[in-house]
Amino acid sequence: MKLPRVSAVVAAAVLTPAVLFPSSASAADAPAPVGVSGPDTASEGGTTQEDLDRAEIRKILADPASGISVREAAERALAAGTAADLRTFLEEGLQNARVTDDRVRAFQILAVGGPAVKKAATAALRGSYADLVQFLKEGQYTARAEDDRAEIERILADPQTGRGVRETAQRALAVGTPAALRHFLEVELAKQQADDDRVLVTQILSKGGPAVKKAASAAMSGSYADIVQFLKEGQYTARAEDDRAEIEQIAADPQSGRHTREAARKALAGDAAGLRRFLESELAAVRMSDNRVKVSQIAETGGPAVRKAALAALDGDDQAVLAFLDRGWAAARAEDEAAAAKPTTQPTTRPTERPAEQSTATPAPQATATPQAAPAGQAPVVQAAARTTTSTGGGDTAARPGQLAATGAEGLGWEAGAAAAAVAAGAGLVVVSRRRRPTEG
Q: Least buried of 51, 123, 286, 338, by fewest C-beta within 10 Å?
């Protein structure tokens, strides 16, 4: 009668820890302890509870999901070797170690997660253990999907994103599941990025200078790491070399203006950023300054048409200045040359011809000739006198109407012609008188 009472007491002692310390659920729930009796209770096959507990602990150690705290506590229990130590670990130590490992895991996820994951992990760590278990089982994945979507949208918004990455990202967003978003970020992104980087190096090679072409060709012939290094650093080093060579040519070019040469020499004394800044933003401005100086000089020395076109260009914008230097200058210069080569039309000197016209209207010549009735034979004399008043003494270019060749006086016109006609008529009378005198004597 006493033996059953002792068995009942022993059974109660064995079951009490399991009732008072139940194992809570977690992302990697610990298996329930095996065995229902103390170390002295044997199974039907002769295996003791201690053997069963030892096997269970070894199974926990073999589970890759077991955390470091669980492993350490399990190893200590096995090292102790007693049935009590094994049972204590399974009933108490295992759960405590799991709580520690779960909190460590949540902190690790928080450290590397995006904004949504960080927020969810922080809330779980501040809550109950049930909140922590829920985060590890489901919450972290929901929050990570939110972060993945935001990351893909950021990639699409980046203007540097290549075509392959962009198209694949858009397909992942169209599917929209957490698995599709994660697959793009973990698998597709790297592959598409490598393809886009190779395309980018090819584009740089086609547009670059000698140094850039050489560096890009070497990168394309190497590994993907060489391509990444070229895109991050190599292209800029090579481009600085090309920029320096180009600016040296500009500074040495005799066609470069003073402002351009001075700015080029200043850029050569600086760093790679200064070289690029000169070529991309400063060069155009200093060249335009020199162009305006050149147009001003052309306006001062050019002919009428050139001067007019140059001044109009200076009053306009930069495009007007460039257009003048490109074709307007040549057109205006041709216009001036054509005007200089065109012969001037001989002016009609009708006032000097008036006496001759009157003499032809006279019915009969008089014995004593007057300026209005000069003999017909003296017409060449009159015409010669008229020409004398309208042409320069040393050239074949006719003077302007109303301008005397010898004096340069203007405004005489008809009066000068009449005076010349009178002189010619007087000379004719002298000749007539000399011809008559021998016969009269």
A: 338
Name the CA dihedral angle for 149, 154, 156, 162, rounded to a multiple of 10 degrees.
-120
User: Is there a contact between 321 and 295 (Cβ–Cβ < 8 Å)?
Assistant: yes
- Which residue from 178, 185, 186 is spatially nearest to 139, judged by alpha carbons? 178
Report d(CA 196, CA 166) in Å as an integer.
Answer: 10
Q: How confident is the model at residue 342 (pLDDT cuts 50, 70, 90)?
A: confident
Degrees (nearest 5) of the Cα angle 236, 240, 244?
Answer: 170
Residue 146: which H helix or E strand, with range? Answer: helix 140-157
Considering all CA atoms of the chain, what is the largest pairwise distance in Å, rounded to the nearest integer? 210
Sketch the domain layout of the chain as residue ranges. Answer: 2-112, 285-341, 351-440
pTM recorded for the entire structure:
0.52
CA 234 vs CA 47, 212, 216: distances in Å: 70, 8, 8
Nearest to residue 428, comparing CAs of 364, 336, 356? 356
Dump pLDDT digits (tens) for 261-285.
Answer: 999 999 999 999 999 999 999 999 9
